[in-house]
Amino acid sequence: MRPDVVTFWHGPLDALRLTCLRSQVAAGHKVTVYSFEPLAQLPDGVGNAEAEAILPHAFSEKLRPPQPDGTWRDWTILQFSDFFRMRLMGRNAGLWLDADVLLLKPVEIDLTKPYFAWERRHQLGNSVLYLPSDDPIVVAFEDLMEQEELTPDWLALRHRLTFMLRKLRGGSNRLSDIRVAIYGPAALTALARRAGALNYALPKKSFYAVHAEPKLFFERADFSALIGDPEIVGLHISPKGRGSAPPLAGSLYAWAAKRFGVS
Fold first, then answer.
1. CA distance 68 to 162
2. Nearest to residue 82, comparing CAs of 39, 134, 140?
3. Quick one: pLDDT at residue 263?
4. Domain that holds residue 235
């Protein structure tokens, strides 16, 4: 079936994300963006829902204290969204797509099975994610969220050693400070392996053909193979600070902006 699409956003949306959201609507999906503050100028067909009802803002303080003015620090947004998407899976809310996933065609899923793809050779991506609400990966995250210290039982040995050494040296005692993606793709991969679910993973190019090479999206290039490949469902884009820059003529971004621009 064609699921509803859900995501989380904190702060203003840039032009790239607005283009991607329009592509998700154009593919025939109902799209909802969860946020703590109302989002202005959302594209037609994109709804805005209250994030507090899914995962309270206060949960962020388990990751790290806010700035003196109350704003979130460095990695907090990314890590909070790792937990938020799992909470949405537990609510049967739909298919999670990062706001910078450009859809080239509709996504069809089996609601009884996981849906994700390889981001790199040995790691799943969590920018495109669906899990049944009773999936063991969802259950593991729900159990983790009950902890105050947020220390996963699936943590890799190298991360356990890094954390132990950091504490011994008087560094941060928060696991969330080890690396930005500690609760993201690496966690999803470890849990999928433990659950015997890696066989559900789609090939890398289904969603991550340009993920690690943003120049393929933002710079002039022959992108006909990307938009013409039937195995590419969408493109997760890693903007690297270029989300607000105007599209460069002859780039895949320019093509996408024209195709999914404001009607």
1. 28
2. 140
3. 45
4. 5-259
